[in-house]
Amino acid sequence: MTSLRFWIPIIVFFGLTPVKLFLGLLSAGAGHGDYFLAKLLFPYTMLSAVRFDYIPQSFMVFAIIQYPLYGLVVGVANLKRRLLVAAIALAVVHVSFAIAAVAFVDKYFS
Asked: pTM value?
């Protein structure tokens, strides 16, 4: 039973990854979009443009593995019976970076 506590969050987040990637790409509009969803869904990757003036490949890879990593964090927390604490912490960090991405990335992706 403990293995399900670990694997279910990973499977769920892994399954959400293609949907979120599609929405982020749709938001980009082949370079003519507003990138708003991309900033909200992949804030770490979008913020890399502030530092590097473009999005490096390593951060593109991070966008692909971001949600499975979230699933791993939630899965481990679920095993340790700290699901709510981990989910709140993860949400606070993600939302904080998303706010920063919306605020600072416009110069690179409007």
From this structure: 0.87
